[in-house]
Amino acid sequence: MTTINMYQAGVRKWMDECFTQATVTNRRERAFRFLEEALELFQAMGCSQEEASELLTYVFGRPAGEVAQEVGGVTITLAALCNAAGVNLNQAAVLELNLVNSPEVMAKIRAKRANRVVPGDYSAE
């Protein structure tokens, strides 16, 4: 098993322990959470809301891609961003997984999720 496969399995194990099965497998909710984290990274890199809005218009002006290919693109661009920012991708990923695996953090995540107000309807798949 490759390192990335082991990491993905570790994330799945954490998700199974932290959330209901409906949450774990809700593709729409996972997409919303991914976008939220990506936007937080975009913001942390010094980019603006206006730039994000321009990019949003550009992306949604084109046809939708294939999920597996887009995952590959996300993975490559994240690794490239980490290289440019001087961040060790593997170290950052493992550190975060270790953090969210603590019982205290899982409790905070569950509470935050229960009170979350975000645009969109997660239940619509």
Report on this model:
There is one protein chain. This protein has 125 residues and is an all-alpha fold. The chain has one domain (3-114). 74% of the residues lie in helices and 0% in strands. The chain contains seven helices and no strands. It has helices at residues 3-18, 21-24, 27-44, 49-60, 67-85, 89-100, 103-114. Helix 1 runs parallel beside helix 6 (89-100). The radius of gyration is 16 Å and the shape is globular. The mean pLDDT is 91.
Tell me, rounded to a whole number, the average pLDDT.
91
Q: How many beta-strand elements?
A: 0
From the spread of the alpha carbons, the general shape counts as globular
> Rg, please?
16 Å
Quickly count the domains.
1
Structural class: mainly alpha
The H/E string reads HHHHHHH
Tally of DSSP helical segments:
7
Largest sheet: none
What helical percentage do the residues reach? over 70%
| Poorly predicted runs | none
State the oligomer.
Answer: single chain
What's the N-to-C terminus distance? 31 Å
